[in-house]
Write a structure and sequence with these properties.
Helix content is 51%, strand content 3%. The chain has 149 residues and is mostly helical. Strands 1-2 form a two-stranded antiparallel sheet. The relative contact order is 0.08.
Amino acid sequence: MTRGRGPYGADPDAAVFVISVAAELSGLHPQTLRTYERLGLITPGRTGGGGRRYSQRDIELLRVISELTSSGIGIEGVRRILDLENRVTALAQRNEELQAELEATRDALRQALAQRRTDPRGAAPTANRLPVLRGPDPGSSLVVWRRQR
């Protein structure tokens, strides 16, 4: 499932569909939607009065669950598949973040090396001015080793 806007520019996470409409859009019976919620496969939004409201993303998830169960996969298998898909998505996002951070670090190091080469005062004053690198949490640290020539 992709992030972004749904049809007509609507937020795909906006919980707007009542259970009867969600059931019709997903091709499932309303009781099946209640069962999937009870099993923890889906978590619809709730109104102030406690009524269920489903989003477009919920409808897409219900369709995926329906396809998987129709192909003979049991509920625990569906749960495992959904969990693995979520993990893959999270890992892909983290990988993108790390690649962007790596590229930014490489750019900063290139700039530091270029400045070191062009510094008229010589290499000594700028030799130890490497960029400050911060980890994902404040307590983490990174060690940069430099070979002596």
